[in-house]
C-alpha cells in the first residue's frame, strides 16, 4: 500500500477540509464535490481522508461490507474509500458475471463491482465532470435508492449500496450536469493559495513527503491522530447536538433568500451545521455553524442566473448578511 | 481580477536586457538530458514542433540518454480505453476458454517513455487518464470484469503539432510535465549534439537519490514561480526536481544557484503568465497591471537582504525572466484559452462520425440507426460461452451470441457546433447590446451541457474587430473573459465579418460546425482598412458578406435596432443569412433566436 499524504499536513484549503470532515462525521450530508484549479491538491485531500475514517464492522466474508448479523462479532475493516477511475466499464461498476468461474467451470456466479466495495464507505471520482454520461446516470440511480440491482441472463443480484460520493474536477474542462450537481450535499471551490509564504509551505511539505514518505507520515502521525479522534468524538456526540427552532428558521430563511431549490438544501445545511457543531464540541447548533457551512451547502443549488454578475460565492455571502447580520 | 484576464496585449516596457542564449539548441538539448536522468520525476515534456528534423533530433537526443532496452511506446492517434488501460483479450479468451487479459499501453510503457503524437488534439478524457497514471505512477482500471493495477512509471513526451496559438496540448497534461519546448523555427544547422553522453546520464541517474535541493532554493523557485504568475504548485515542485537532476548531471552534491537558474529558465519561464514586477527603484510604466497583493508581503519577508545584496530568489527569477520571449504578453493573449479539444463535457469525446476516435460502446440493441459494435458484442458474449454451451450444446456456431450481448457504437447525435456571435459594438447603443449578448452567451453556455456547443464572441468597433471570447464551452471562462466589454466608435462591419469568418474556418478545421450570428443594423462606416467613409465601408461589408456565403458558413443576421434597417436585410441577402428583426432583443431572446437559427 502506498502511503498517502497526511490530511493533517495539508496547508490551508480550509473549506475543503471542513467539508470532508463533515462527510466523515455524518455521511448523510450526501457527498462532497470539490471543484477547482489544477495542482491545488484536490485528489490529495480526498485520498488523505481515508486515513481519518474510523473502521467499520462487517460480517466476515461479506462482499458487500454488510454489518454483522445480530450476535455475530464480524470483523473490523477500514472504511472503504473506492476509486472510480475514468474508463471504468459498466460491468465493473455494478458487478457482473465472474469471468474466471464462468469460463473455466461454467458456473454462474456474481462478481461484485465497485458499488459493492463502496457500500458503507466512500466512492471517489476524480474528474467527475469527464465521467461518461451513462455511468453518471447509473450512479445517481444507485445513490438515490441505496441499492444496486443487476439483472442479466438468469443472474439476478440485489445488494445494498450506500455510499458517499466524493467528486473532484476542474470546471474549465467542462461543467457538471446540473442534475448531478445538486446530488452532492456539499460543494467546495478550491484555488491555488495566493500568498507566497503559504505557497512556499505547500511546496516544502510536498517535497519532504516525496523524498521520504514514511518519515513524513511519522512526523505527522500525532496531528493525524488528533484529527482522527476529533472525528470519532464528533460522531459520538452528533446525536446529542440540539437543533433549536431558531436555527431551523434561520436555515429556512437563508434558503428562501437564495431561492435554493427544494428541501434538500435546507436539510443539508442543518445536517452539516450539526456536524460542524459536533466537531467543535458545541451542544447546540448556532448561527455561527450555519454561517460556516452555508457556502458549501448552498452554492451549487442556486438557480443559475447568468445575468447576475455576482458569482454564487457572493450571492451566498449577500444572503447571509441579510438573514443573519453579523 | 487578475491582470491575465486583460485580453489586450500591452507591450511590456522593460529595460533592455541581453538576448537569451543565442544557440536555440542549448535548452532543448539540456531538457532532453535532464529528462533522461529522471524520467519519472520530471514527468516529461511538451514538444511543440511540426514533424521534422528538429523534432527527430530532440527525440534521438532523449533516446540516447535512456538506458539500453528502455521501453518506448508510441500512442496511436486514436486509442481506445481497452488498449490504453488494458482489458479483456477477446481472441485469447475465446480460444483459451478462460479469461485472458491484455495489459494496456500505459503499463507497457512502465520504466520508459510514452510518446503522444498530436497532443493538441488530445481530449480532456485522454489527458485525464494520462494524468492519473503520471500522478500515481501506476495505472488503475476497472474494466471487463477485472480490477487492473499495474505499475506505469513513464515519462510522457507530448508532441504538440498545433498550428494556431490556441491549438495546444491540454493544460491538464502540460501541467504535469516539467518541460515545454518550442522547436519550431530551429534551423537544421543549429541542431547539435546531445548535451550529455549516455554515460554521463547513467552516472547522474545513480547519483540522483543522494543529490539534495536546499530548502532555500526550493523557496526561491516557489517565489519566482509566484512572481511570474504561475498558479499551479506543480511548477515549483517540478523545477526543484529539474534542479536536482541538473546537479546530479553536473556531479554536484546539492543543487546551487546554477542549477536553480537553469530550472527556472527551463520550467518556470515557459509557464510565465506575466512579467515579474520591476525592482521598486525603477519607474513603473503607466499601464502596468497593479502589483498583486502577495508581492508586498514577500518583500517584507526578505530580511537577509543586508548580507546578500542579491538574494537567491532574485537571481533565480532573473534567469527565468531572461528566457521570456519579448512578446510574452501578446503570445499569452493569443492562447489565453485552452484549445477546445482539451475541453469537453462529461463523457464527451468529440465524436464525429467521419473522424473515428473511439467513442465507446454501450449495451443496447442496434436499433434506431445505432450501429452494432461487433468486438464489443463478442467481448460481452465471451464470458458466457462455457455456460451457454452447457445449456445449449447444439446451438450452431462457435460463439453463441444472445440479444443481451449486443453493444452499439456510440456517436454524437450531431456534429458539435460552434456558435460565433459577431456583434456590432459601435455607437451609443453598443454597451446595452453587448450586455445582452453577453447574457445570451452565458445563458447558452449554462444550458450547453446537453447540447455540446461552443460559443465564441467577436465584436467590432472603431477601426477593427476583437475576439472577446475564443470558442469555449466553459461558463466559468466566459464569465472571466467577458467581465469588461468595450464599446463605442465607428462601425467596421467588414472587419467584423472577416474576423467571424476566419474563426468559423478555424472551427471547421477542428471538425466543429460553425454558425455565425451577426448582430448589426447593417450600416457600416469604416472600411476593411480601418478608414472611414460610408460607400467604401459598405462595399467592403458586402464583399465580406459574400465571402461568408461562399464559404458555406450558415449564418443569421439579427437587427436589434428599434426600427429595423433595410441595409441589414440587404446585407443578410448577400451573406445568405437568415434576416431576423428583433427589436429590443434581450439576452433570452437572443439565445432563443440563435438556437432556432442553428436548429438546436
Describe the protein in words.
The complex is a heterodimer of chains A (326) and B (600). With 326 residues, chain A is α/β, with parallel strands linked by helices. Chain A has 14 helices and 11 strands. Chain A has a 5-stranded parallel sheet. In chain A, strands 2-3 form a two-stranded antiparallel sheet. In chain A, helix 1 (14-25) packs across helix 12 (262-280) and helix 11 crosses helix 12 (262-280). The relative contact order of chain A is 0.15. In chain B, helix 1 runs parallel beside helix 3, helix 10 packs parallel to helix 12 and helix 20 (493-509) runs parallel beside helix 21. Mean pLDDT of chain B is 78; it is low at 1-20, 281-308 and 335-358. Chains A and B meet through helix 3, helix 4, helix 6 and helix 8 of A and helix 4, helix 7, strand 6, helix 10 and helix 11 of B.
Using brief descriptors, characterize the structure shown.
heterodimer, A: 326 residues, alpha/beta, five-stranded parallel β-sheet, two-stranded antiparallel ribbon, globular, B: 600 residues, six-stranded mixed β-sheet, 40% helix, 15% strand, flat, disordered N terminus
- Tell me about the largest β-sheet of chain B: 6 strands, mixed
Q: Considering DSSP H and I runs of 4 or more, what fraction of the residues of chain A is helical?
A: 40-55%
- Determine the number of helices of chain A (DSSP H or I, runs of at least 4 residues): 14
- Helical percentage of chain B: 25-40%
Q: How many helices of chain B in DSSP terms?
A: 23
Percent of sequence in beta strands of chain B? 5-15%
Overall geometry of chain B comes to flat
Strand order of the largest sheet of chain B: 14-13-12-15-16-17
Amino acid at each position: 500500500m502506498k502511503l498517502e499524504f497526511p490530511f493533517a499536513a495539508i496547508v490551508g484549503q480550509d473549506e475543503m477540509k471542513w467539508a470532508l470532515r463533515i462527510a466523515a462525521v455524518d455521511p448523510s450530508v450526501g457527498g462532497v464535490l470539490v471543484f477547482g484549479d489544477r495542482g491545488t491538491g484536490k485528489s490529495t485531500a480526498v485520498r488523505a481522508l481515508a486515513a481519518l475514517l474510523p473502521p467499520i464492522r462487517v460480517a466476515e466474508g461479506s462482499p458487500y461490507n454488510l454489518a454483522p448479523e445480530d450476535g455475530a462479532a464480524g470483523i473490523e475493516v477500514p472504511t472503504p474509500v473506492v476509486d472510480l477511475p475514468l474508463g471504468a466499464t459498466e460491468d465493473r461498476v455494478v458487478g457482473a458475471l465472474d469471468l474466471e468461474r464462468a469460463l473455466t467451470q461454467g458456473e454462474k456466479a456474481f462478481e461484485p463491482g465497485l458499488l459493492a466495495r463502496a457500500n458503507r464507505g466512500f466512492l471517489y471520482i476524480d474528474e467527475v465532470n469527464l465521467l461518461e454520461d451513462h455511468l453518471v446516470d447509473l450512479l445517481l440511480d444507485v445513490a438515490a435508492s441505496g441499492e444496486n440491482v443487476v439483472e442479466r441472463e438468469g443472474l439476478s443480484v440485489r445488494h445494498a449500496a450506500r455510499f458517499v460520493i466524493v467528486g473532484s474536477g476542474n470546471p474549465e474542462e467542462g461543467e457538471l450536469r446540473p442534475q448531478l450537481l445538486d446530488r452532492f450535499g456539499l460543494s467546495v471551490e478550491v484555488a491555488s493559495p495566493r500568498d507566497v509564504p503559504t505557497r512556499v509551505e505547500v511546496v516544502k511539505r510536498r517535497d519532504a513527503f516525496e523524498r521520504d514518505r514514511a518519515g513524513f507520515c511519522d512526523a505527522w502521525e500525532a496531528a493525524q491522530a488528533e484529527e482522527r479522534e476529533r472525528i470519532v468524538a464528533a460522531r459520538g456526540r452528533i446525536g446529542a447536538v440540539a437543533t433549536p427552532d431558531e436555527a431551523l428558521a434561520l436555515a429556512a430563511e437563508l434558503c428562501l433568500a437564495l431561492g435554493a431549490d427544494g428541501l434538500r438544501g435546507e436539510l443539508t445545511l442543518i445536517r452539516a451545521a450539526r456536524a460542524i457543531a459536533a466537531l467543535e464540541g458545541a451542544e447546540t447548533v448556532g448561527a455561527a455553524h450555519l454561517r460556516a457551512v452555508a457556502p458549501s451547502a448552498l452554492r451549487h443549488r442556486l438557480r443559475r442566473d447568468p445575468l447576475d454578475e455576482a458569482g454564487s460565492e457572493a450571492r451566498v455571502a449577500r444572503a447571509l448578511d441579510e438573514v443573519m447580520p453579523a | 481580477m487578475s491582470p491575465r484576464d486583460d485580453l489586450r496585449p500591452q507591450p511590456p516596457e522593460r529595460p533592455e536586457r541581453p538576448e537569451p542564449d543565442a544557440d536555440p539548441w542549448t535548452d532543448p538539448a539540456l531538457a532532453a538530458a535532464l529528462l533522461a536522468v529522471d524520467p519519472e520525476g520530471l514527468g516529461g515534456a511538451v514538444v511543440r514542433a511540426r514533424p521534422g528534423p528538429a523534432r527527430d533530433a530532440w527525440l534521438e537526443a532523449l533516446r540516447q540518454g535512456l538506458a539500453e532496452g528502455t521501453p518506448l511506446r508510441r500512442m496511436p492517434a486514436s486509442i481506445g480505453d481497452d488498449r490504453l488501460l488494458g482489458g479483456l483479450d477477446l481472441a485469447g479468451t475465446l480460444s483459451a476458454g478462460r479469461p485472458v487479459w491484455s495489459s494496456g499501453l500505459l503499463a507497457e510503457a512502465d520504466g520508459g517513455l510514452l510518446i503522444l503524437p498530436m497532443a493538441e488534439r488530445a481530449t480532456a478524457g485522454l489527458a485525464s487518464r494520462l494524468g492519473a497514471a503520471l500522478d500515481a505512477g501506476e495505472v488503475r482500471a476497472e474494466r471487463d470484469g477485472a480490477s487492473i493495477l499495474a505499475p506505469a512509471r513513464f515519462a510522457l513526451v507530448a508532441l504538440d503539432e498545433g498550428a494556431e496559438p490556441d491549438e495546444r496540448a491540454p493544460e491538464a497534461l502540460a501541467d504535469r510535465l516539467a518541460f515545454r519546448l518550442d522547436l519550431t523555427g530551429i534551423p537544421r544547422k543549429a541542431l547539435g549534439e546531445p548535451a550529455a553522453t549516455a554515460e554521463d546520464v547513467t552516472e547522474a541517474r545513480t547519483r540522483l537519490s543522494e543529490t539534495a535541493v536546499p530548502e532555500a532554493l526550493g523557496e526561491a523557485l516557489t517565489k519566482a514561480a509566484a512572481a511570474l504568475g504561475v498558479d499551479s504548485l506543480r511548477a515549483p515542485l517540478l523545477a526543484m526536481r529539474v534542479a536536482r537532476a541538473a546537479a546530479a548531471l553536473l556531479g554536484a552534491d546539492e543543487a546551487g544557484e546554477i542549477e536553480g537558474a537553469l530550472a527556472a529558465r527551463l520550467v518556470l519561464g515557459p509557464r510565465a503568465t506575466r512579467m515579474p514586477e520591476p525592482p521598486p527603484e525603477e519607474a513603473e510604466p503607466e499601464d502596468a497591471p497593479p502589483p498583486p497583493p502577495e508581492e508586498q508581503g514577500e518583500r517584507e519577508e526578505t530580511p537577509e537582504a543586508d548580507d546578500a545584496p542579491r538574494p537567491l530568489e532574485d537571481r533565480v527569477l532573473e534567469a527565468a525572466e531572461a528566457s521570456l520571449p519579448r512578446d510574452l504578453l501578446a503570445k499569452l493573449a493569443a492562447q489565453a484559452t485552452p484549445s477546445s479539444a482539451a475541453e469537453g463535457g462529461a463523457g464527451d469525446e468529440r465524436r464525429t462520425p467521419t473522424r473515428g476516435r473511439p467513442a465507446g460502446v454501450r449495451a443496447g440493441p442496434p436499433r434506431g440507426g445505432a450501429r452494432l459494435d461487433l468486438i464489443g458484442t463478442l467481448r460481452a458474449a465471451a464470458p458466457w460461452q462455457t455456460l451457454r454451451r452447457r445449456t445449449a450444446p447444439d446451438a450452431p456456431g462457435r460463439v453463441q451470441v444472445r440479444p443481451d450481448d449486443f453493444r452499439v457504437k456510440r456517436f454524437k447525435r450531431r456534429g458539435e457546433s460552434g456558435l460565433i456571435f459577431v456583434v456590432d459594438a459601435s455607437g451609443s447603443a453598443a454597451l446595452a447590446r453587448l450586455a445582452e449578448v453577453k447574457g445570451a452567451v452565458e445563458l447558452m453556455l449554462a444550458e450547453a451541457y446537453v447540447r455540446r456547443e461552443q460559443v465564441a464572441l467577436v465584436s467590432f468597433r472603431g477601426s477593427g474587430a476583437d475576439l472577446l471570447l475564443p470558442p469555449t464551452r466553459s461558463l466559468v471562462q466566459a464569465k472571466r473573459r467577458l467581465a469588461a466589454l468595450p464599446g463605442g466608435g465607428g462601425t467596421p462591419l467588414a472587419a467584423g465579418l472577416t474576423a467571424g469568418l476566419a474563426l468559423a474556418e478555424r472551427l471547421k478545421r477542428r471538425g466543429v460546425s460553425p454558425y455565425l450570428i451577426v448582430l448589426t443594423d447593417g450600416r457600416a462606416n469604416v472600411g476593411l482598412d480601418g478608414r472611414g467613409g460610408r460607400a467604401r465601408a459598405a462595399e467592403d461589408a458586402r464583399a465580406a458578406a459574400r465571402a461568408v456565403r461562399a464559404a458555406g458558413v450558415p449564418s443569421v443576421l439579427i437587427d436589434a435596432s428599434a426600427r429595423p434597417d433595410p441595409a441589414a436585410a440587404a446585407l443578410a441577402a448577400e451573406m445568405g443569412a437568415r434576416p431576423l428583426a428583433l427589436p429590443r432583443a434581450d439576452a433570452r431572446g437572443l439565445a432563443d433566436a440563435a438556437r432556432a437559427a442553428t436548429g438546436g
